[in-house]
Specification:
Structural class of chain A: mainly alpha
Shape of chain A: elongated
Distance between the termini of chain A: 21 Å
Helix content of chain A: over 70%
Number of helices of chain A: 10
Largest sheet of chain A: none
Radius of gyration of chain A: 20 Å
Strand content of chain A: under 5%
Oligomer: homodimer
Largest interface: A-B, 35 and 35 residues
Chain lengths: 232, 232
DNA sequence: GACTATTTCTGAACGCGTTCAAAAAAGTTC
DNA sequence: GAACTTTTTTGAACGCGTTCAGAAATAGTC
């Protein structure tokens, strides 16, 4: 869990804050991002426009709360999966399907979410410092997923796998955002196929013959991550 | 070259259009995206605000012209590389370094560019229909790069490689956008390392033993591309 | 309970991207 | 060159996210 610096100083304030947040998430799910104006949120919450900005620095910061909330949902729903399913492939498959299902109600505005997320200056940027706590939480899900998996994996692969899987899962979400097929059938198809390929690739990479290339690749990934942490 | 449906009907109109475009690109390079307002563009071009919107449906459409222009620059500068360098690895290395160098002056606002690009609804979205002509041009660069390469490659790999390399090059750009190291040294480091890895991976994938996995993977990529073309 | 400091809240304002009815200019046809 | 159509151009307007000075409410202190 990431620590949260409070910007409310009284219970009343806290109450107003959550009221605004809940109203916002309702409207977002109902109308999408563009049509959910700050004015509409304030009005429906029975609060002045300026007051909404007192609790959330910007519309994007309001969205960050969404990130956090859906992640918590997903995390909670993932735990039972790990208990029933022991294989990496099975876990990945179910966790990813579940993720998409969790995000489902917000597909229409998830694009805008990623849009702002791709901007290095945005607080939503998943690679940036502002989102570091959420990112850590998010990667941790894959650490749990990998940690007690049955198959034997080379140590250096096992160390970097959570991060790589997190990146991969971001890619799946990106695909889903662009997927306008009915019920997002394509995304589920892509998940099935890529998880299968990934599983085979991991098996291949675990082969002793692959050791030099594997080491080289993973060392590079580790270097990158170190740089990321050092300077953002 | 992609066909361009004209939205100007007279020479005068064409003149005004390019005037606005040039002014916009100047201001963008000079001030960045946010500070380059439509009003500022119109004013500096000596044209009314509404008139700018007569020639460009939106600010984002104006940016599309930037995409196109820098791509043309990059393409022109790439041709000599192919004449001097025959190896896939060497070509990739030089083409990617060149791309970053070409984009250099626009780093500050390239983030915003990618930001809007990640939104499925944006005309800038590189995966969307509006950008299809530019995407085709862009992929074509890698087709040229791959076409007369010296090394022998499996047919099905050679067929999909341009698209995969294009995707890869998008990833490099994404990294560059988030790279705030001096002179973007990190991006150049990442290019060097990943090109090396990619080259080894391609060699590996070309091994007859890898045929089943290779076929399976590439068939999947081909399927995806077909879907993309069919429905966007 | 009065006085002060802090927090919560308001409403008007600003600059932005975008739209649109209508004026001005240019092209077309006789 | 007059009557028309089409294209180009204008300027005012709209709704948006955001900011801010200051009012109202609350908390803290004696």
């Amino acid at each position: 869990m990431s620590k949260q610096k409070k910007d409310t100083k009284t219970p009343k304030g806290e109450q107003t804050r959550t009221l605004i947040l809940n109203t916002a998430l309702d409207l977002l799910a109902e109308r999408g991002y563009e049509k959910t104006t700050m004015r509409a949120i304030a009005e429906k919450a029975g609060v002045s426009l300026g007051n909404a900005y007192h609790y959330f620095k910007s519309k994007e910061h309001l969205i960050q709360a969404f990130y956090h909330r859906t992640h918590q949902e997903h995390l909670a729903a993932s735990v039972p999966i790990f208990e029933k399913e022991g294989s990496l492939k099975g876990r990945l498959l179910q966790v990813l399907r579940l993720k998409i299902k969790t995000l489902e109600p917000y597909h229409e505005f998830a694009g805008v979410l990623f849009k702002t997320a791709a901007d290095p200056h945005s607080p939503l940027n998943p690679f940036g410092q502002d989102a570091a706590p959420i990112r850590r939480d998010s990667i941790q899900l894959f650490e749990t997923l990998v940690s007690d998996v049955k198959a034997r994996l080379p140590a250096e692969l096992k160390a970097e796998l959570p991060y790589l899987l997190w990146l991969y899962h971001m890619g799946i979400i990106l695909f889903w955002i662009h997927d306008r097929s009915p019920k997002h059938a394509r995304t589920y198809y892509v998940i099935d196929r890529t998880v299968d390929l990934l599983d085979r690739l991991i098996t291949l990479a675990s082969n002793p013959l692959m050791r030099p290339l594997r080491k080289r690749s993973l060392q590079f990934v580790a270097d990158l991550r170190a740089l990321e942490l050092a300077e953002g």
